[in-house]
Amino acid sequence: MRTAKPPTLLQTLLVLGLFLTMAFSFTTLLHLPVMLALFIGWFVIIGLGMYLGCTYRDLEEAAAFGIFEGMPALLILFAVGAMIGTWIVGGIVPGLIYYGLQLISPSFFLPTTLIICSITALATGTSWGAAGTAGIAMMGIGEGFGMDPALVAGAVLSGVYFGDKLSPLSDSVLLASSMSGVEIRSHIKAMLPISLSAYLITLVMFTIVGLNHSSGHTLEHIQTLTRLLNEYFVLSPLIFLPPLLVMGMLALRAPAFPVISLGALLGVGYAIYFQDTNLITALGSLWDIPAIETGHAFTDRLLNRGGILSIMPSVAMIIFGLGFGSLLVKVGIVQLLANHLQSYVTNESRLTNCTLLTAFLGNLLGSAMYVSLILTPKLLSETSDKLGADRRLLSRNTEFGGTLTSGMVPWSDNGTFMAGILGVSTLSYLPYMWLSFSCLAIAIAVSWYRTINHRTTQFDGDYALQQLQNNPLLHRRTTEND
């Protein structure tokens, strides 16, 4: 049996260059779906793998395993799509928009969006759940105010990712800390100074933009929107119950898929009871909502979304992306890039840069946040220990690089999900992910400052061993991860 050879750097650069060229040209020049570039990319990577000695069956199984690992994310995506459909037909989303337009000032809408989404994600521990509940409501309110949807999406994403990476309930926090051999509370404390500084900067930026924002819609337009919502739907303060119930159950650490599915079924009940919708139509909204025609083009566009059918392109994107990332790992491309990055690490500043970049590449090439959060500590823990660096530096930067960049890649699970749920393309909202950019910039600046002022831990080859021996919990977690 022939043993597969590792790829060369030239082969790796050629393959990745071809894929990135296709992805860019398909989306910006040819106006084709980026999943086609991923689909073609499968065969490019499979061709390289077979040339290096891998069998087709092994490569196919690797792609299938990558897709299987992403099934929990796909199930949540199905549930969120169904929930949005029933919540619109049931009057829940229209009600949230209606009351939001009445209660929130347009001048302070953007910072309010940031704060509400932050609290929701912090309480529930899930950026997807926060975006699928508070996020879609704020997007609707923002459109009612005439805000740029990409700008509003930036505020939503800044909020949900801030809350997600600081919540002890978050899967990303658990992954980044456990894979780095760091206790969860220590991991969160290590992130707090930079995260809070970046959050304040982001809050000020959105406040300034909001205060200087000139509403794209007149008061008459907003009044027309609220009137139509009130006429077409039976609105009641009871519409707040399903979102509060879903967020409360998520905050109590109930599994996301059944909880969000329950929220979708509550929407069916609301459609039948409050909106006098027949059972067949209400159940059908789980898959695709019936056309809502109010006679007002903007209102119709705002309400005609949701249902499982609406997120099927996102599902295809995630499936192709997960398979593509798994093939890159199988062929050895990810390991090769990591090895070249590790040779660059000689101090804390470079370790920070390398960790952030490796985590971003996990999203870019692995197409999933969990790939980034698992692979980065595995690839860099030995290098970190040789430098005598505190493992909290590794866990913190893994979280920053993995979580905060996950929504920046159009073909990643997070980028696809957020674009599909919020109705804004990844490249459109990318410039407004100010929390992510601020956090990454501060992390790089702090590590650079510490390095030039010789505030890093001395490079002691026995440091990692001493750290493990003195910390039984760290020793146990590291052994389990190995």
UniProtKB/TrEMBL annotation:
The lineage of its organism: Bacteria, Pseudomonadati, Pseudomonadota, Gammaproteobacteria, Oceanospirillales. Signal peptide: none annotated. It is a multi-pass membrane protein. Residues 159-446 form the Na+/H+ antiporter NhaC-like C-terminal domain. The keyword Membrane applies. Keywords: Antiport, Cell membrane, Membrane, Transmembrane, Transmembrane helix, Transport. It comes from Parendozoicomonas haliclonae. Coiled coil: none annotated. The chain crosses the membrane at residues 35-54, 74-101, 107-131, 190-212, 232-252, 259-275, 308-333, 354-375, 432-449. InterPro entries: Na/H_antiport_NhaC, Na/H_Antiport_NhaC-like_C, NhaC_Na-H+_Antiporter. This is Malate-2H(+)/Na(+)-lactate antiporter. Belongs to the NhaC Na(+)/H(+) (TC 2.A.35) antiporter family.
